What does this fold into?
Amino acid sequence: MKGRPLLVFTVCWLCGSGIACALSGWSLIVGMIGTFICLPLLLRMIDIRGWSILLLIGALLGGAMHWEWNDARNRSGLPEITHTPAEELDGLAATFEGKLMSDVRIDGDRADFEMQITSVPPLTDTVSESASKDRSRLTLQERLMVQVRLMEEEEQQVAAGWKRGDSVKLTGSLALPGEARNFGGFDYRIYLRTLHIHWLFKVKGASSVTTISPVGWEKLNILRWNDIIRHKLGAAVDQIFPEPHGGYMKGLIIGMASDIDPDTYGQFSQLGLTHILAISGTHVAVYVASLLLLLSWLRLTRETSLTIVLLLIPAYVLLSGGSPSVIRAGIMSMIGLYMARRGLARDGLQMISAAALLMMWWNPYFLLSVSFQLSFLVTAGLMIYMPLIHQLFRSWPKSLAAAASVTVTAQLISFPVTILYFNQFSLLSFVANFLLVSLISAIVLPLGTVALILSFLWVPLAKPLAWIAIMLNKLTFVSVEWMNSLPGFVLIWATPSLLWIAAYYAVLYVLLRILHRGRGDRPSIQGIEEDTAPLVRQSVGGVPQGALGWSARSAISSHDRKTGAHEAGQGSMTMLSAAIAWPEYTSAFAARGAGFYAGERMGVLHKWMCALLALSLVAGLWWAYQTPQPAGTGVVQFLDIGQGDSTLITTPGGKHILVDGGGTVQFGKPEQSWKTRRDPYEVGAKVVVPLLKKRGIHRLDAVIVTHADQDHAGGLQAVLEQIPVERFMFNGTTSGTANFEKLLDTVIEKKIPLYAIEQGMSYVPDGETRLHFIYPDLGKAVDTGERLPVSEHQNHDSVVFLLEMAGASLLFTGDMDAAAEQDLLYMIQDGSLAASFGPYDADDAALADDSVQKIFTLHSGDNQKDNNMPVSIDVLKVAHHGSKTSSTEAWLQYWNAKTAVISAGVNNTYGHPNPGVPERLEAAETDIYRTDQMGEVQMKIKDGKIDVRYKLIRDDLHSN
It folds into this structure.
């Protein structure tokens, strides 16, 4: 199969697994049939015939069947064994015995670990004899994710004593993992399922956990000792590096990314530098190079050195945490070392294919891992694309050209996956990676590693090296912070389709290939060859030519294998390690470039083809960058952010308005600071901002905070910090809390126009949308140059507005109470506020996208209707999450809404919504949608028609 049978076989296997992952049932059968129909065309393109076709069909079917077989077995056995439905097990108290199967992660007042059950006690009062027999036959496949709520600070030390391999008995309650409650949101249940975990087990207090250390041969648990060593290494790093450098260096050296300061990690993430903090091929290459260099100093023979390093690689993979990226790098390095030891030809693409096939066979869920996808895509991309990109830098100095080729290739290859999962990309990522990756990987990483080793000998000996690393870290942090502070470079992208990603890679490759062919190339250059090309075994000095790549040949040509002589010197040994452990970079660091000849001039046809492909690539990027929205349709998205409110309004003209941002209410006391977690859950940063980015919201034309309570305004801090905002509207008062004051300070610092809402103001974002603000009536506009008045009645002073969009009307009420409802009804019925605003006119269209203005009068003259008569609106956003303190019968009767939306947290402690509110709505024959039961509720509005869908239960489409 064109010299790379394993590559083609692996690609077909991955395609089969991917199809089985994406489809199920009849759709899977149809998908496989469609694939087989298209397969002959693909095989003809790559010129594969004969028995090879059957092998590839077998790989495609094998990947699909292997996935289906594993996925069918990945289910919880508790409902079947206990003869209890999963819905009844959810929340059930129980006591389990088992074995601790992971390292214990302690963060503030919570300790998490995985547990494998060894016995299942009766979970209900009535248990049949068959159920008892089933429990006795329980296999060791049922795992639980245990979450222990620590009650006292001393319990942190108790939890730190729990180790992998301990026998454990604990009492708590079962819970189903949370599922995605918003469209496109993170699904914790699916994530845990890829780890073969189907249940959470929540425990209150360390006293509910009893552990017994293993005895005898069970003490020799290699993973247990690996955890102990990692903790000792982490403690040694903390001893010589102060924070935030300690957590940063632990991530860099040991792969303990959870200890990295969240702010530092966020800064690196925005610039696309998080790969530095994850153990990957770079770390393995440095590790292998250092070992081979050390062994060469000890004057060991080449064969002995390669064997020793090959055997030590698994230890490093374990010690660094065993992420998919380091497993991939470890497998490839071991294959390269073995082939070097045997003198066999080495092909980078064949090696990476073997690594992918082995990992997928061991665990097909690796396919869903972001680390797995990025690691393999970038590595394969460096092998395939970098020789083509390298010619673009042929006029640069050799070392700079090599670094630029690696950086540009890695960024171009990782770009689609980055926007797929993180929905943002910084244009400064190219510069940041070019300037900082070499500094960190070539200087800071070795310095930190040596300092860590010396700290075990004598701490003062390690301090000077640690100080140098700290200074370089400070330089890195300042550079990263400065680059992130530059406006306009971070682009937000909506989640692209897999078809678009495939088209991106194809167009990019064809474009680079045509550029290469148009410039011409020489078939061979002495001493240079593509690392990914199939290699021919021709003996040079007793070793097949090309078996180890350019650097290995230069090292071996003067190396006596029998006597272990070292005429090649230490530099040759270093190049040997680079060729083995870092095959994807070899071609860029060749002495004479990538081996392409640019002597011929590009023909006219090639120029036109390149121009067309370049234009197609740019057009595709522009199309993917646009915010997806049906033409002429308004969308109102009531987000499920737990207990609180957050609504995203997208107008038919493409304007985006965010009403409230939710917020996490903190109940902890200052003296309980030990409970504070390193990266606490915050609704704005964890839910609202990611959802805005996934939906391609590049900027918000307006942010409206109905009032200053934390569950409405708290999440807006993260929004303002990460999403550009055109204008900010609020009720003109402050609650006096530190969080809201910080929010207003951020608005002023970012020079966002600030508007204090008055009764009678309107905002017209486009010709089909108007927001009429009808409450509060605080008597005067607020001058932002003066101190804001403090209101202790934020609910009463909530901003209330009527949204008229695309022929439909929606009333937003914040947390207004019954008194506010009564006041507003009185003003309407008394005639001091018009309840009917009349049709659009030309003046309204001219006001589109202007600032908030007082554009309608309190008395509309001839257009005013009888204010004693009720109106009818399409949608009512129920006030205060359905609290009993609002939504009075008179209020509901007046507005006579066809549909009502209640935003409340599932199982919230306030009891929202109060049972009386849904009863009154049902009595008024109003359709009710609740985020606590249905998750996110979306309404698409066009020509007065409203189509509703919601995330949970089912995706039925309702029309009003």
Remarks:
- Residues 5-73 form one domain.
- The mean pLDDT is 83.
